[in-house]
Amino acid sequence: MLTAPRSSLFLIVAIDGGAAAGKSTTARALSARFHFLHIDTGSHYRALTAELLRLGVAASDPAAVERALTGLALGSEVEGRRAAITVNGRLVPDAELRAPAVNAAVSHFAAIPAVRAALLAYQRDQARIGRENGFAGLVMEGRDIGTVIFPSADFRFFLHADPEERARRRAAEGQQDSIAERDRLDSSRKTAPLVCPSGATDIDSTFLSLDEVVERVSAPIAARLAAA
Ligand code: DC
After folding, report:
1. Is position 4 within any domain?
2. Fewer CB under 10 Å: which end of the chain, C or N?
């Protein structure tokens, strides 16, 4: 019997959850273990926010946001196992993506349908970039990956943790971030709100070590790859 060659398998893994729920660390670990391309979609919203703020466009003026978006060309730069977004050819530095002004504004921009629409096709296209660059799959983290971007992903996980634990994690990273306020805005917006996708595996990481979270997420993926 003919079976598909192993190299044809390209797995898509969606990881959603609130701020500081452990998504990035888990996604990075999966990317290293299975040679998946890692995409942090929060950085896409942050890059657009940084760029719109630089242009002096306010989130309170959605029409101006929509106009400004037409002048922004999005690209991808693969660095190691990660693909980073470029805006008009510029890779937005990490310090800019994590700046307090961006932390404060990003959820407001992310609630604007035109901003989400500008990123939808771009984010789906990252699977092609993963395939073309020889990766075994894609691990994408965000708020709407399992609900909107890849609802048919091979694996969908939703991570959450108590707000106190998440605030502790951000503080340990030396970051000034209003997690509770961002989660409130992200969960209550009309377009693609932060919710656990129906049918996703829900993991509470409050009392788990990072290794334990990674193990829970990795186990079914390793089993699927072993069976391929
Ligand atoms: O993951 P992060 O904290 O860097 O995300 C920054 C913001 O971007 C978050 O508060 C909401 C928005 N976001 C979103 O709306 N949808 C995504 N898929 C990812 C992030």
Report:
1. no
2. N
CATH number at residue 36: 3.40.50.300
Tell me the pLDDT tens digit for each residue of 169-205: 888 887 777 888 888 999 999 999 999 999 999 999 9
The burial of 156, by beta-carbon neighbours within 10 Å (0-12 exposed, 13-18 middle, 19 or more buried), is given as buried
By the 8 A CB rule, do 149 and 15 touch? no
Antiparallel, parallel or unpaired: β 36-40 and 137-142: parallel
**Two structure tokens written together for 197:** 């996708």
CB under 6 Å to ligand 1: residues? 19, 41-42, 45-46, 106-107, 110, 142-145, 182, 186
Q: Is residue 195 situated within a structural domain? A: yes
Total structural domains within the chain: 1
The model's pTM: 0.93
